[in-house]
Amino acid sequence: MIPQKTRLNLICGLLVLTFLSGLGQLSWAQEATEPKKDSMPSKTTKQTSKAIEKDADYWFKKGALVATYGNDKAAIRYFGKAIALNPNHSRACFEQGISYGQIGDYQQAISMINRALELDPQNGIFYYGRGRVYLLSGDDAKAMEDFKHAAELGDEDALNYLDYMGQPQQP
C-alpha cells in the first residue's frame, strides 16, 4: 500500500505532466500573465485587454498556469470564469475538478469532473483524473473502475498505473 502523502505527490505530478504534455510549449502562459512593458496603456491596449477577458481560453490558460504552480484556489476561480464564458468547455470543467481535488474538496471535484465527462464521455484522461480523485478520497474501488475505463479508452497513464498495481490492461 502506498502512503497517502506519496500517493498525493504521485497524483499531482502525473496530472501536471499529463496536462502539460497536451498543451505543448508554455509560451502562452507568459503572454497571458505578463503585463506589457509600456508605461501608459493606450486605448487600444485597454480594448484588447477587455476583449481578452471575455475569452474562455484566456481564463482556461491562466487557470492552468496557476494550477501548475500549486495555486489551486486561484485556478478554481480562473477555470470558473472560463466555464461562465463557455459552459461547454470540458477541459475547464475537468481542470477545475482536479483543482478542487487538490484542495481536498472531493465532492465538488467529482461533480466537476462528472460534468466534463457529460460533455466529453470518450476522454480517457477525464476518467483517469476522476479515478485519482477517488483514490485521494479513499474510495479505491471506484478509483480502480475509472482507471480500468480510462485504460479501455487508451489512456497511457491509466495503463501505466494499472500495470504498476499489477493489473495490466490492454488498450
Structural notes for this entry:
With 171 residues, the protein is mostly helical. Helix content is 74%, strand content 0%. It is globular and about 45 Å long. Mean pLDDT is 81; it is low at 20-36.
Q: Give start-end ranges of low-pLDDT stretches.
A: 20-36
- Helical fraction equals over 70%
Proper CATH architecture of the domain at 46-121: Alpha Horseshoe
Biggest beta sheet attributes: none
**Nearest-angstrom radius of gyration?**
17 Å
Determine the N-to-C terminus distance: 25 Å
CATH topology of the domain at 46-121: Serine Threonine Protein Phosphatase 5, Tetratricopeptide repeat
The backbone outline, from C-alpha atoms, is globular
- What's the quaternary structure here? single chain
Q: Report the count of strand segments.
A: 0
What integer is the average pLDDT?
Answer: 81
The CATH superfamily of the domain at 46-121 is Tetratricopeptide repeat domain
The level-1 CATH class of the domain at 46-121: Mainly Alpha
Features:
171 residues, mainly alpha, Serine Threonine Protein Phosphatase 5, Tetratricopeptide repeat, 10 helices, 0% strand, globular
How is the topology of this model organized?
Blueprint: H1 4-23, H2 27-33, H3 43-52, H4 56-68, H5 72-85, H6 90-102, H7 106-119, H8 124-137, H9 140-152, H10 156-164
